[in-house]
């Protein structure tokens, strides 16, 4: 297949491009810069210059492809409304381009806010609906296009998609630990996160493109639950720093913007995903990655 990938040079996207190319697919990757375009070309992918606000470019990329994998997001933590607006507009324009084709449209989402009080399941619908919702309600918007002949597949990522070179949440926790001289967790550290190695996430995305039926919600989750205290303790050991509890009142100052996520339970099951797609994660656990030095740089 000819697969159009947004976020093609990002943390998850670059591994996804490698996975798709390795499986014999042709890849068109959205590239915002000359450096990104060159990186894609060096792998054997075809760059398409543009960003999430270049809707004509997104429309062309989707129209020229047999499948679309949408991983890009502005992640503007200072202006989340702008990130949500751009996300909804991008999903809408690419889905419109795929109407009537039955082409796979794999759309990324997170696990935050799916449910409260238990691990999220693939059967749990996202409560975010409409343009004013988180991520512009893009998950439900994309699923609405199934009735219009688009094979929408949702991939919900664990809060930690880990590995050497990660610049996500755990990297921010590492940076806070280095800055403060202690590795912290909030309260009693019992908040639970799920986790997945980047390579396993990329393999799941490929499986979604190739196999997943319309309407599938895939959970990119290898470990259902890792406590925030276990994460802090692993970082403390890897960085040779003491491990401390940080009060909820002091968390914002200690951790920065990531404190809100670190205090939010984001555990999830992937039992249905594994059964449906015969997906078997093989990468190291999050704690193993941390202790092996993936976040020591």
TrEMBL record:
<dbReference type="InterPro" id="IPR036291">
    <property type="entry name" value="NAD(P)-bd_dom_sf"/>
</dbReference>
<dbReference type="GO" id="GO:0005737">
    <property type="term" value="C:cytoplasm"/>
</dbReference>
<dbReference type="Pfam" id="PF01370">
    <property type="entry name" value="Epimerase"/>
</dbReference>
<dbReference type="GO" id="GO:0004029">
    <property type="term" value="F:aldehyde dehydrogenase (NAD+) activity"/>
</dbReference>
<feature type="domain" description="NAD-dependent epimerase/dehydratase">
    <location>
        <begin position="3"/>
        <end position="211"/>
    </location>
</feature>
<dbReference type="InterPro" id="IPR001509">
    <property type="entry name" value="Epimerase_deHydtase"/>
</dbReference>
<dbReference type="InterPro" id="IPR051783">
    <property type="entry name" value="NAD(P)-dependent_oxidoreduct"/>
</dbReference>
<protein>
    <submittedName>
        <fullName>3-beta hydroxysteroid dehydrogenase</fullName>
    </submittedName>
</protein>
């Amino acid at each position: 297949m000819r697969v159009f990938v947004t976020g093609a040079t990002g943390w998850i996207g670059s591994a996804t491009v490698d996975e798709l190319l390795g499986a014999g697919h042709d890849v068109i990757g959205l590239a915002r810069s000359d450096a990104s375009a060159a990186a894609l070309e060096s792998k054997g992918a075809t760059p398409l210059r543009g960003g999430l606000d270049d809707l004509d470019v997104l429309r062309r990329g989707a129209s020229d492809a047999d499948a679309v994998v949408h991983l890009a997001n502005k992640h503007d933590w200072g202006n989340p409304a702008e990130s949500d607006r751009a996300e909804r507009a991008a999903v809408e324009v690419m889905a419109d381009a795929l109407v009537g084709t039955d082409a796979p449209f794999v759309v990324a989402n997170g696990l935050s806010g799916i449910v409260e009080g238990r691990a999220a399941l693939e059967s749990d619908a996202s409560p975010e609906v409409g343009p004013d919702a988180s991520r512009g309600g893009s998950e439900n918007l994309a699923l609405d296009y199934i009735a219009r002949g688009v094979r929408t597949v949702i991939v919900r990522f664990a809060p930690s998609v880990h590995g050497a070179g990660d610049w996500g949440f755990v990297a921010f926790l590492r940076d806070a630990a280095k800055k403060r001289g202690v590795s912290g967790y909030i309260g009693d550290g019992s908040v639970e996160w799920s986790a997945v190695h980047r390579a396993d996430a990329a393999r799941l995305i490929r499986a979604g493109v190739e196999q997943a039926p319309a309407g599938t919600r895939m959970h990119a989750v290898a470990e259902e639950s890792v406590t925030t205290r276990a994460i802090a303790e692993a970082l403390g050991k890897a960085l040779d720093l003491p491990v401390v509890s940080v009060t909820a009142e002091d968390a914002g100052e200690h951790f920065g913007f990531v404190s809100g996520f670190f205090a939010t339970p984001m555990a999830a099951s992937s039992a249905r995903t594994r059964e449906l797609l015969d997906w078997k994660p093989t990468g190291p656990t999050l704690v193993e990655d941390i202790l092996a030095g993936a976040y020591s740089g």
